[in-house]
Amino acid sequence: MGGILSVLFCLTLGFTIPIFERVNDMIGRDRTQDVAEGQMRVATFFASPISAPESTRIMLVTSIIGAVFGGIHCIGWNFVFPTHTETILWRISATVVTGIPFAAFLTSFMNIIEESSKSGFIRSFSAVGGFLSMVVLALGIPVYVLARISLLTGAFIALRNLPPGAYALVKWTSFLPHV
């Protein structure tokens, strides 16, 4: 079992590193020189340059949306699952899918505080907290991907043991107005 988990971890890490490299490429350098004046086409994955404050705001909004999305999965916290293991797996995965975007939110919020603060103590505290949050995020993204896969797999696996009411025939014509 440990060998399978390590292979899955390496695969998800292999998929997430190029994403980080692409985001760093978009933020890190001025891409305006890549497009010549009058050019009719740009590269398929061309990204216009964004500043650090814009990047922070984008991350802030995206992390809020991600945390809300993860929170929707927490609605199933007390649902009935076929086995106790599946219940625990669903709860852990839902917590991870909610918690990792929340950590991204904290990272973005600390960056905003650091940029706007004039106090040396607050800037240093925010810088240390931001660094720790970035480490948590860098380690958390492969875990997030595995949690999302676990939620999707768990939803399909739960279809094997449906309650009898799921097979009841619904007469939709009695609920919908028709001609």
Explain this structure:
This protein is mostly helical and 179 residues long. The chain has a domain at 51-162. Helix content is 67%, strand content 0%. The protein has helices at residues 2-28, 52-73, 84-116, 120-157. It is extended, with a radius of gyration of 22 Å. The N and C termini lie far apart (58 Å).
Strand content: under 5%
State the helical fraction: 55-70%
Q: Please give the radius of gyration in angstroms.
A: 22 Å
Low-confidence stretches: none
Arithmetic mean pLDDT = 77
Terminal Cα span: 58 Å
Apparent shape:
extended
Secondary structure tally: strands: 0
Helical stretch tally: 4
Structural class: mainly alpha
Main β-sheet: number of strands, strand sense, barrel status?
none
Give the SSE order as H and E letters. HHHH
